[in-house]
């Protein structure tokens, strides 16, 4: 499928590429101030956070290393199962380090609260979360998120790393899918 067709599957664009980049620049400035002089490790959650990480780390005026975790909480559907399994763990020992989890989206919050608790059990200096998107109406658990790009309505979104059945991650914007795509 080419880019034009991918775009045609969208019902509406919620956040444009320009808005995403402007927001990530803002967040990067705040994050840089917070971690100035500290041993910061960026932890991305695969696969959705790939785009956020790529743009956020380039906007950060610091040389923070990056590591990745992969967990499964969703099948190819659109509902959180609440069951989290580590598919790929960190390569890095985070003892005594400042960890910033970089995420694409917080929906029910189940995945992120599980990941945060898991990382906190490894005795890091701190664990904070930066997410590009959050759905406040979908929250099932309270997660303490330090940096949020955009609060969005409780709708399934794709693009900028977010997928439907592993497709649409390459879209430069974030949008909702047209009904014909689901059926
Ligand atoms: P929970 O509900 O545990 O979900 O906070 C977190 C993970 O679920 C995925 N997710 C989405 N993926 N569009 C997507 O493409 C969405 O609207 C959406 N909502 C949740 C995502 O992987 C996230 O890390
Ligand atoms: Mg994700």
From TrEMBL:
Would the keyword rRNA-binding be found if you checked this record's keyword annotation?
Answer: no
The EC number of this protein is 2.4.2.8
Residue ranges annotated as transmembrane are none
Give the first-level EC class, as a single word. Answer: transferase
Q: Name one GO molecular function term.
A: glycosyltransferase activity
Does Magnesium appear among the keywords?
A: yes
Gene3D superfamilies xref list: 3.40.50.2020
Q: Which cofactor does it need?
A: Mg(2+)
The record's listing under Pfam families reads: Pribosyltran
Q: Where is the Phosphoribosyltransferase domain?
A: 18-164
Keywords, comma-separated and alphabetical: Cytoplasm, Glycosyltransferase, Magnesium, Metal-binding, Nucleotide-binding, Purine salvage, Transferase
Could you tell me which CDD domains the record lists for this protein? Answer: PRTases_typeI
SUPFAM superfamilies reported in the protein's UniProt record? PRTase-like
Which superkingdom heads the taxonomic lineage of this protein's source? Answer: Bacteria
Identify the metabolic or biological route this protein is part of.
Answer: Purine metabolism; IMP biosynthesis via salvage pathway; IMP from hypoxanthine: step 1/1; Purine metabolism; GMP biosynthesis via salvage pathway; GMP from guanine: step 1/1
- InterPro entries per the UniProt record, alphabetical: HGPRT, Hxn_phspho_trans, PRTase-like, PRTase_dom
Where the protein is mainly located, per its record? cytoplasm
Recorded catalytic reaction(s): these are: GMP + diphosphate = guanine + 5-phospho-alpha-D-ribose 1-diphosphate; IMP + diphosphate = hypoxanthine + 5-phospho-alpha-D-ribose 1-diphosphate
Q: Which family does it belong to?
A: Belongs to the purine/pyrimidine phosphoribosyltransferase family.
Q: What is this protein called?
A: Hypoxanthine phosphoribosyltransferase
């Amino acid at each position: 499928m080419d880019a034009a067709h991918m775009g045609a599957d969208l019902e509406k664009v919620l956040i444009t590429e320009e808005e995403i980049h402007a927001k990530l620049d803002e967040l990067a400035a705040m994050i840089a101030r917070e971690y100035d002089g500290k041993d910061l490790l960026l932890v991305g959650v695969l696969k959705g956070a790939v785009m956020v990480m790529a743009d956020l780390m380039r906007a950060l005026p610091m040389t923070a290393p990056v590591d990745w975790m992969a967990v499964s909480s969703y099948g190819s559907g659109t509902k959180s199962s609440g069951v989290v399994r580590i598919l790929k763990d960190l390569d890095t020992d985070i003892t005594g380090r400042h960890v910033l989890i970089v995420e694409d989206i917080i929906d029910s919050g189940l995945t992120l609260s599980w990941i945060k608790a898991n990382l906190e059990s490894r005795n890091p200096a701190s664990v904070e979360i930066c997410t590009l998107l959050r759905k406040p109406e979908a929250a099932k658990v309270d997660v303490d998120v330090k940096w949020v790009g955009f609060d969005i309505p409780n709708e399934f979104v794709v693009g900028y790393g977010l997928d439907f059945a592993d497709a649409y991650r390459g879209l430069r914007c974030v949008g909702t899918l047209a009904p014909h795509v689901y059926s």
